[in-house]
Amino acid sequence: MARPRFHRVRVESVTPVAADGSAVEVTCLVPDELTGAFAFTPGQHVTVRLPGDGPQVRRSYSLCSTPRELTGRGRLRLGVRVVPGGAFSTYAAGRLAPGDQLELLSPVGTFGVRFDPARRRRYAAVAAGSGITPVLSLVATALETEPGSRFTVLYGNRAAGSAMFADELGDLKDRHPGRLHLVHVFSREQPRVGLRRGRLDRTTLEALFARLLRPAEVDEWFVCGPAGMVEETLAALAGHDVDPAAVRTELFHLDDSPGGRRQDPPGAASGGGPATGGEAAEVSVIMDGRVTTVPLEPGRTVLDAVMAARPDVPYSCRTGVCGTCRARVVEGSVRMARTWALSADDRAAGDILTCQAVPETARLRIDFDVL
C-alpha cells in the first residue's frame, strides 16, 4: 500500500445530516484519474487539509459512503460533526460551498473490512455520536455486498435531533427488512424500545444484550465513539466471552473521564500524552525512496523532528488515534504513550505512531514507504 498523499478534489455539496444542524455531510467529486488513489475499505477515514498559504489545518473524518459510490459515481462522502470553535468543522458547516476545493489524503485506517458476497455473517456495531459515520459505510456495504448477512446497530446519542444519518439509516432498514436491526439509545430523552434513557454504557448494553442481541451469536463487532464508551463496550463484550479478535475499535476522541483512561497495550508507555524522556537521537527517515537524517532532542516526538525537514510527512490528529502518521522502525527502538491506532500485529511488525514515539536509542531509522 502506497503512502497516503494529498490530492485536491472539488466539493459537490454540503448537506445537514442531523435534525438539530449539528452535523453536515461533505460530498467530494473524485476525478477518474484519482479513483485508484482514493480506493478504500468501508470504515476507513481521510485527512482533510484546507488549501492556502496560511497555517495548516488538518482534520481526520471517516467516510460514510461506499466503495461502489466511488467507482460508480466518483463520489466520496464525509461526515462532519460541528464542534464549537472547531477550525474545520465550523468552516465546513458555515462557509464551505459547492465548487470549493479541499485537499484530502488517501484513505487510511484499520477499522475497515472487506466484505465477501459468498459469506453469511452476523455483524453488530456499537456507535456513539459521530462514531456512526464509518459504521454507516460498513452497514451499507455489508448489506449490498453480502445478501446472506445481517447487521445490528446500537446507536447512542443525547437526543433524536443530534443523531447523524438517522434518515439514511432508516432508509437502509426499509430496503433490507429483516437484515438490519437498528436500536437508538438516548441519554436525554426516552427511546422507543422500552429501555430507560441513559448513556450507551455497560449497564445499558447488558440490558440490550438480555433483550435484543446475544453476543455469542455475533461473528464480528465494530465499536466506534469516545474512549469511555469504547472501554465500556469492550468490558461488556469481555464479560460475555467475546473473542477480542472478533472486535474492531475506532476512537473518535480521547477524554479524561474514568472510562477514557485506558490501559495501553503491553510494551507501550503509560500517560496521557506523548511519551516523555528518551534519548537525544539521530533519526533517519525513508520516504518516497529518499533518506533524510535529522537530529531529535530528548522529549520531542519523532514526528516533530521529521516535520522540520520533510513537511510532506503524513499526520493528522497527533493524539495516537487516527494512525495517519504510521511508519515502521527498521533500526533502533521507541516508546509510545498511546497506541490506539495499532493492533498487536502492527506493533509486533515494528509499526509506530510517529506522533507518539520518542527514541530509546541513539540511532533510529524509520520507513514510511513499506506501509
What is the gist of this entry?
The protein folds into 3 domains: 100 residues, Translation factors (Elongation Factor Tu (Ef-tu), domain 3), CATH 2.40.30; 139 residues, Nucleotide-binding domain of ferredoxin-NADP reductase (FNR) module (Rossmann fold), CATH 3.40.50; 87 residues, Beta-grasp domain (Ubiquitin-like (UB roll)). Helices cover 20% and strands 29% of the residues.
What does the model show?
- This protein is of the alpha/beta class.
- The chain has 3 domains: 6-105, Translation factors (Elongation Factor Tu (Ef-tu), domain 3, Beta Barrel); 122-260, Rossmann fold; 281-367, Beta-grasp domain (Ubiquitin-like (UB roll), Roll), CATH 3.10.20.30.
- Helices cover 20% and strands 29% of the residues.
- It has 8 helices and 18 strands.
- It has helices at residues 67-73, 89-94, 132-145, 166-175, 202-211, 227-239, 302-309, 344-348, and strands spanning 6-16, 23-29, 45-49, 58-62, 75-81, 101-105, 122-128, 150-157, 180-186, 220-225, 247-251, 281-287, 290-296, 326-331, 334-336, 351-353, 357-359, 363-367.
- Helix 5 (202-211) crosses helix 6 (227-239).
- It is globular, with a radius of gyration of 21 Å.
- It starts with 5 loop residues before the first strand and ends with a strand.
- Mean pLDDT is 87; it is low at 255-276.
